[in-house]
Amino acid sequence: MQIQMPRRRQKGETIIPMINVVFLLLVFFLLTAQIAPPTPFEVTPPDSAADQAARDQDVLYVSATGELAYNAARGEDVWPLIEAGDPAQPLEIRADGAVEATTVAALLKRLRAAREAGAQLVVNGG
């Protein structure tokens, strides 16, 4: 007498290993991502033809109305922090494109007295 064994049904492919890989990638990217602080107010830099990207450092923001922001300080409170910074490092300025040129010129003159390295004005590449 010959007894036939019932055929085993093939199991479908499991997606558990793929879920594990995606989860590990998600954790990796979350741990290695650098979270940038939000800007204190909306700034639209002027346009430029140069192809040099801005470096990541402390930034002095200038609004269209001439309001200043540096780290957590606002207005005239930014100057003690700027003067206490490293004088050999140029300060990055992100000014709105609509700010008056005389305001930026006065700001650069005051920065020249506070920092020997001066400042770098960030503009949009064109």
Automatic annotation (TrEMBL):
Q: Native species of this protein?
A: Paracoccus homiensis
* InterPro entries per the UniProt record, alphabetical: ExbD (IPR003400)
GO biological-process terms attached to the record: protein transport
Keyword hit for Cytoplasm: no
Membrane topology, as annotated, equals: Single-pass membrane protein; Single-pass type II membrane protein
- Report the sequence similarity comment from the record: Belongs to the ExbD/TolR family.
Q: Does the keyword Protein transport apply?
A: yes
**GO cellular component, as recorded:** plasma membrane
Which cellular compartments is it found in? Cell membrane
What protein am I looking at? Outer membrane transport energization protein ExbD
Instruction: Enumerate the UniProt keywords alphabetically.
Output: Cell membrane, Membrane, Protein transport, Transmembrane, Transmembrane helix, Transport
Main localisation:
membrane
Q: Which Pfam family is one of those matched by this entry? A: ExbD
* Superkingdom assignment: Bacteria
Q: Give the GO molecular function terms.
A: transmembrane transporter activity
